[in-house]
Amino acid sequence: MEPKKYASFIGGAYDYEGEERGVYSPIDGRLVAHVVMATPEKADRAVDAAQDAFKRVWSKTPLSERRRILLRLAEIIQARSDEYALLESLNTGKTLRQTTFMDIPLGIEHLSYFGRSLEFKDSREIVHPEYPGTKGVVQYLPLGVVAAVAPWNVPFLMAVWKVAPALLAGNTVVLKPSHFTPLTALELAEDAKRAGLPDGVLNVVVGEGRVVGDALIQNTKVAHVSFTGSTKTGLDVAKKAAGLRRITLELGGKSPNIVFEDADIDRAAKGVLFGIYLNSGQLCESGSRLLVHSAVKQRLLAKIVEYMRRMNPGNPLDMETDVSAITTAEQKNKIELMVDSAVTQGARLVYSKDITKSVPEGGLYYPPTLLDNVPPHTEAAREEIFGPVLTVLEFEDEEEAVAIANDTEYGLAAGVWSQDIDKARRVAEAIEAGTVWINEYHLLSAAAPRGGFKKSGIGRELGLEGLLELTQTRHLFINQGGGDLSEVAYSLVVRE
Prior knowledge:
Blueprint: E1 4-6, E2 8-10, E3 13-15, E4 20-24, E5 31-36, H1 40-56, H2 63-79, H3 81-92, H4 96-116, E6 123-126, E7 134-142, E8 145-149, H5 155-168, E9 172-176, H6 183-194, E10 202-204, H7 209-217, E11 222-228, H8 231-240, E12 246-250, E13 256-259, H9 265-277, E14 289-293, H10 297-310, H11 329-344, E15 348-352, E16 369-372, H12 379-382, E17 389-395, H13 398-406, E18 410-411, E19 413-417, H14 421-428, E20 435-438, E21 453-454, E22 457-458, H15 463-468, E23 471-479
Parallel strand pairs: 1-5, 8-9, 8-11, 9-10, 11-12, 13-14, 13-19, 14-17, 16-17, 19-20
Antiparallel strand pairs: 2-3, 4-5, 6-7, 7-23, 12-22, 15-16, 18-21
Helix pairs in contact: 1-7, 2-4, 2-6, 3-4, 4-5, 5-6, 9-10
GO molecular function, one term: oxidoreductase activity, acting on the aldehyde or oxo group of donors, NAD or NADP as acceptor
Domain Aldehyde dehydrogenase: 19-475
Keywords: Oxidoreductase
């Protein structure tokens, strides 16, 4: 069967004019799709389509109707969930188990959440205690056009996270997925139209960041820029998007997973593995730094290695495979260089899974790896590896654990493992991170705000907090005729 041809989805239709490129699977190098690349001019046209749709129809669409369309979209994707899961796996190299049981169902649930949740209201009444006989109404109004720039590692989920709240709040969207992994985002746009979303409300442009992304974020008709990616690129985005507009940045992480001596060691070992090896470590919040109490370090590492030995490498499309591919060749090379450099500088290789004979030829893979005694000055110790590599540090007490956890420029996420919940919460509240799991890792809720401290970003996505960032407020001060304010205020300038 001939691979499908995709293109930017602008104003409710694909625009097939332009340079065509092949999309190749990191699983085995096969051609999985053709994509026509956008230009800066197409990015501008997408913004114009979004602005027109905002003024013409979407800003006037009732909140109840916006909810209904999101719920209908969730139903349509649910009916095609197997197709989405396979496409996401082929495009990203994720295991089919992960896309089937996590990425696609979670995205559908998050769409449904924003369609069902009554937490967000487009207005609320307030009381003016200073002025009897009056009332106030605070309205939560859409901003206009939202430019959403997404990374290559979780394309479907990221599309949902950026699109659903923006649409619910009444904004229109131009989404730029990574040109490496655009396929499910484009399918989402098609299905949104089937769900009844008016043309131009959701547009998807496919192109390189420095070409199409730059055009989007510098377009003065864009009211809000939402970017997820590396800290380096995020800083560049912030400069280019400067001006009187909103910006949300979710950037890199170097997240600690802290295991205390009173933790359930078996459960903690499973959580640590899940925290770093899910998606082969290609998640911003991956728990890439294991901080373990010295009293249980050897026992925990032994249990982790035991579970690593049981991991099943193979073709990610096989439902028995546990190891995802690395999505891009550039990222695979980066992982190799950082690990090799760390080992050369003294890090101890505790375990590296042998996968060479199990994975498909022509694919991009890196073995699940465990490093101890990583010199603190090395790049692997300080910077985001974004791969299946866990580094180990030990501590003696709470104070040292918190100090090590916070000794980083990043602050996206963390995990704390202890059967003493009071202690775990005390430690969690001392960690400089936007999300801290206690006796858990990686689990995400659409009801919870997501974002980072320090160089891991600004602003929040998801949750009521994320929704409100996509709105602007108007205060209506209403005198209902029940109070005479002349003695309070008017008499200062008005004489009867």
